[in-house]
């Protein structure tokens, strides 16, 4: 028994009793640390996962032919067997094996990180289109053209559906011996080519018979290989209604027979490519992959031996190209903008979290004050007191931070870097640091009254506030001077941009602390003249002994500001998406995809509910000569009058001067150009398009609904004949009659052109809004609103808990004078209500202004899909809902804090007052 008592009175026993007494505040502080560490480690990983998902979606919109490392040549490939062995069939390896060795060596020489995202190289050789003449066909019959193709891995890509595989070529080419070939089912049907039917192609001026031996279908129609072998699955059909349709497709020959075909003098294209496995690319690896792709593309790689073989020259080295590097750069810019915006939004919750941690540590300290003062009175040094507080702070922070960090790491399967763990480590030591900092205020002899000597703050306060205001002003000026030119898209998470909202919030807090005593003093004077104790005492205590210092004011101001700021951003993104969708469609609907015939256009005009249509007759590459230098642009051909009717009255209509329809003059053909073209031609003395001068009738920045490219030149269809061979529209803009059932009209349009895509602004807006980047940002903004609301409520609760000891001494005394519970609750409300009301107003105003400041450095167009920064948009219902929620949260938190505990008896209150 004596040993047990001795152990309880030992240093370890006393410390254990100290830590286990009233542990509620310590547990709450530990939970705060856990949440902070969890967010610190989870958010970067969530951002990386979001960026990776967005990157995959972005790459999925592009054909594999644009992403794969691709090279092409007009020379013939080397013929010979492999020295190392391949997976090709023996007869095919004897012809294509040497080239397979060269391609495999290219991959082996890649950096491991780049090679990890590639698949085995492939090759395909196609001969230029030659007409496959049908015996006895008349002049009005369709024109059938085939592109003889040799695919070494043909039987891996397609499966036989009818007939037989093409037999090897047994006779010299050309000859009277038919050459067998296979077509895909869709091509054979469109060309009306039956099995065993013989047609004739021209080779070196000689008619060479070819026969369809079989038909095939793709093993996987979505395989990227079919974006390189164009047109193979489906034929290319040109039908402008003025001439018989021209149908072109790839016809596959026996790949082992290339050695027999190689000596034929025909134009051909050898395409080799290294497929990219986009699923293996992660956002965090983009920065490393981009320079590797650049170096790989700048080098020449051996794909053959080179030199003359009999009558032809074989290819030696080629340079590979891919748009993947550019796409990674675009994705990195979008990710940087997203990270910058998230960092800016997160600065608010971080500020509130710090404020709440400070309040939580203060609550823990107040719970320990009496015991520590007793220890100090019995001779404990400041070092020993700090040691006790450091131990408790470590027990609060370290386990919670470790657990939170582990949970945050496990929450997302992505690499978030080490920064999150650094922040978690800061959270781990924060409770100990805050508690240790409180040790010098311990005094067993007296308590300092908070209402004495607090007014004004002296010269140092004024100097500190002036420095803070100057820092905030300088940051805002620098941010606006820098602008979007070196925005977050290029500098990533910018400390300047992230600091501006917090600095402005601190300035707003100073404003609150400076201005709220002014009306409060008038209230005190007015209450003094009225009967009743509660109003005068409550307002006087709020003025002389305010519970809300900088920390709780910061929590309320930043919390409300972030909530309003987030709601404004949500409205801005929503309106920006809608504007971008409307601009992209450019009409009530657009039909785009496959070439459209005149008959289909006439059917569209006749659809009930369609007021007018305007085809985009051509979007082809054109050459601009600028003072002797060649540049490429996209030439858009439309009928200006038709397009003006379709886009009449739309705010996103492309301005089309009537002069575009004028015939060419001495100044040249009239054109409309984009800002990109204007910027490179504005200072030139001589500019031409395909050798002819042109007259610029107007300049339009950005893209149009006619083409997704920003580098373009537009010409009226009446002046287009010298610059394009065919005017076959692939895009048609449609205007609906007012009040028509849009879905019914869209269904009719889809029926007329089943192979095309019909888009409306609503559909495009839904697609843009469902992108991972937008969804992630919206989720982050909603999470920020919820988090700061909860933290603000917690800050108010902790503020009132910190002030509870003073109430515990005052309220029982007032109860002896007849103060009832209603009066007690009113006094509690006076402690927090005045400063909270002012903080709510100032925070709301700051939140409404912040978007104009922040969006000076962050371009939201990467989120909305538009060409330019969207205008700040206020959603009154959303903002009103957020503000109403903030007010309700504040009221509920205040009522909850006021109800904590019950009355203490008068005798105990008197004794504490005498002892304190």
TrEMBL record:
This protein's record includes keyword Transferase: no
Keywords for the protein's UniProt record, in alphabetical order: Cell membrane, Membrane, Transmembrane, Transmembrane helix
Transmembrane spans: 340-365, 385-412, 418-442, 462-484, 496-516, 550-573, 777-802, 832-858, 878-901
Keyword field contains S-adenosyl-L-methionine: no
Domain ABC3 transporter permease C-terminal residue range list: 783-904
GO-annotated cellular components: plasma membrane
Location in or out of the cell: Cell membrane
Cross-referenced Pfam families: FtsX
Superkingdom, taxonomy of origin: Bacteria
InterPro entries: ABC3_permease_C, Macrolide_Exporter_MacB
Location (main, coarse): membrane
Molecular-function GO term, any one: transmembrane transporter activity
Membrane topology designation: Multi-pass membrane protein
Family (UniProt): Belongs to the ABC-4 integral membrane protein family.
Protein name per UniProt: ABC3 transporter permease C-terminal domain-containing protein
């Amino acid at each position: 028994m004596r040993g047990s008592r001795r152990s309880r009175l030992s240093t370890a026993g006393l410390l254990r009793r100290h830590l286990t007494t009233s542990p509620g505040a310590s547990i709450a502080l530990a939970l705060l640390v856990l949440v902070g560490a969890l967010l610190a480690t989870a958010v970067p990983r969530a951002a990386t996962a979001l960026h990776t998902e967005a990157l995959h979606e972005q790459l999925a919109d592009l054909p594999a032919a644009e992403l794969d490392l691709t090279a092409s040549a007009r020379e013939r490939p080397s013929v010979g067997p492999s020295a190392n062995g391949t997976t090709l069939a023996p007869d095919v390896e004897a012809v294509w094996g040497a080239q397979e060795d060269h391609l495999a060596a290219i991959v082996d020489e890649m950096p491991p990180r780049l090679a990890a995202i590639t698949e085995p190289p492939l090759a395909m050789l196609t001969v230029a289109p030659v007409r496959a003449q049908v015996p006895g066909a008349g002049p009005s019959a369709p024109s059938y053209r085939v592109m003889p193709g040799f695919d070494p891995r043909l039987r891996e890509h397609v499966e036989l559906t009818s007939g037989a595989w093409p037999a090897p070529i047994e006779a010299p080419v050309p000859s009277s011996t038919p050459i067998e070939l296979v077509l895909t089912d869709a091509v054979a049907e469109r060309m009306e080519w039956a099995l065993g039917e013989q047609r004739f192609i021209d080779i070196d001026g000689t008619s060479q018979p070819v026969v369809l031996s079989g038909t095939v279908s793709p093993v996987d129609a979505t395989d990227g290989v079919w974006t390189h072998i164009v047109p193979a699955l489906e034929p290319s059909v040109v039908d402008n209604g003025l001439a018989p349709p021209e149908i072109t497709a790839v016809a596959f020959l026996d790949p082992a027979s290339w050695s027999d075909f190689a000596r034929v003098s025909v134009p051909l294209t050898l395409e080799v490519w290294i497929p990219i496995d986009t699923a293996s690319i992660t956002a965090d690896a983009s920065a490393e992959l981009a320079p590797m792709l650049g170096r790989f593309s700048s080098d020449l790689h051996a794909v053959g031996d080179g030199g003359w073989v009999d009558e032809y020259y074989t290819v030696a080295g080629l340079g590979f190209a891919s748009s993947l590097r550019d796409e990674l750069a675009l994705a990195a810019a979008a990710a940087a903008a997203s990270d910058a915006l998230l960092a800016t939004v997160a600065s608010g919750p971080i500020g509130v979290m710090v404020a709440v941690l400070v309040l939580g540590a203060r609550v823990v300290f107040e719970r320990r004050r009496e015991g520590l003062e007793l220890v100090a009175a019995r001779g404990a040094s400041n070092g020993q007191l700090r040691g006790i507080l450091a131990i408790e702070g470590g027990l609060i922070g370290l386990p919670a931070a470790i657990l939170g960090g582990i949970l945050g790491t496990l929450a997302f399967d992505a690499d978030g870097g080490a920064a999150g763990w650094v922040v978690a480590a800061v959270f781990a030591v924060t409770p100990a640091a805050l508690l240790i900092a409180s040790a010098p205020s311990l005094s067993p002899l007296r308590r300092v009254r908070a209402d004495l000597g607090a007014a004004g703050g002296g010269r140092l306060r004024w100097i500190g506030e002036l420095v803070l205001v100057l820092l905030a002003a300088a940051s805002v000026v620098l941010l606006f001077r820098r602008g979007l030119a070196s925005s977050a898209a290029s500098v990533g998470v910018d400390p300047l941009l992230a600091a501006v909202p917090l600095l402005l919030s601190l300035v707003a807090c100073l404003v609150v602390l400076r201005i709220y005593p002014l009306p409060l003093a008038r209230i005190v004077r007015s209450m003094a003249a009225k009967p009743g104790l509660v109003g005068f005492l409550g307002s006087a205590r709020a003025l002389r002994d305010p519970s809300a210092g900088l920390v709780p004011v910061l929590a309320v101001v930043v919390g409300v500001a972030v909530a309003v700021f987030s709601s404004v951003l949500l409205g801005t993104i929503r309106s920006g998406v809608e504007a971008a969708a409307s601009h992209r469609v450019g009409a009530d609907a657009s039909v785009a995809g496959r070439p459209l015939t005149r008959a289909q256009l006439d059917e569209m005009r006749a659809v009930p509910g369609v007021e007018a249509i305007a085809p985009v007759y051509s979007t082809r590459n054109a050459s601009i000569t600028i003072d002797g230098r060649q540049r490429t642009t996209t030439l858009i051909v439309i009928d200006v009058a038709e397009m003006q009717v379709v886009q009449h009255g739309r705010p996103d209509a492309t301005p089309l001067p009537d002069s575009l329809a004028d015939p060419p003059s001495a100044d040249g053909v009239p054109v409309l150009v984009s800002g990109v073209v204007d910027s490179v031609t504005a200072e030139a003395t001589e500019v031409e398009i395909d050798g002819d001068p042109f007259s610029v009738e107007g300049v339009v920045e950005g893209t149009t609904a006619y083409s997704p490219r920003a580098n373009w030149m537009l010409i009226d269809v009446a002046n287009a004949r010298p610059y394009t061979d065919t005017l076959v529209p692939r895009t048609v803009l449609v205007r609906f009659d007012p009040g028509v059932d849009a879905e019914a009209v869209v269904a009719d349009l889809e029926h007329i052109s089943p192979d095309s895509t019909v888009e409306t602004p609503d559909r495009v807006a839904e697609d843009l809004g469902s992108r991972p980047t937008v969804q992630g940002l919206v989720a982050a903004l909603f999470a920020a609103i919820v988090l700061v609301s909860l933290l603000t409520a917690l800050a108010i609760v902790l503020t009132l808990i910190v002030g509870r000891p003073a109430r515990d001494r005052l309220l029982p005394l007032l109860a002896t004078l007849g103060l009832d519970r209603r009066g007690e609750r009113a006094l509690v409300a006076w402690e927090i209500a005045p400063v909270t009301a002012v903080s709510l107003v100032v925070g709301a105003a700051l939140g409404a202004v912040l978007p104009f400041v922040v969006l000076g450095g962050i371009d939201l167009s990467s989120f909305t899909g538009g060409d330019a920064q969207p205008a700040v948009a206020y959603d009154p219902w959303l903002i009103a809902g957020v503000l109403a929620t903030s007010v309700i949260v504040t009221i509920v938190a205040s009522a909850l804090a006021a109800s904590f505990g019950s009355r203490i008896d008068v005798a105990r209150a008197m004794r504490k007052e005498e002892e304190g």
